[in-house]
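Protein Record: Sequence and Backbone Structure Tokens
======================================================
Tokens: labelled as protein backbone structure tokens, with as many entries as the chain has residues.
Task: work out the structure tokens from the sequence, keeping to the layout shown below.
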Amino acid sequence: MSKNTTAVARGALPAKLKLELPKTTPLIRVSDMEKGNRAMRRAAKKQNQRSSK
């Protein structure tokens, strides 16, 4: 299950990030309010750091 949720998070969050804004900070808040999960928010932060490098 963990691999599946990770794949979903990888697919869904970056897609939203690309659709709404190239900047990540406001988007993290939006997705965080939608999901309501700190885990998802942390995953998004990690992915954003990777993509920004």
In short: Residues 2-20 form the longest helix (19 residues).
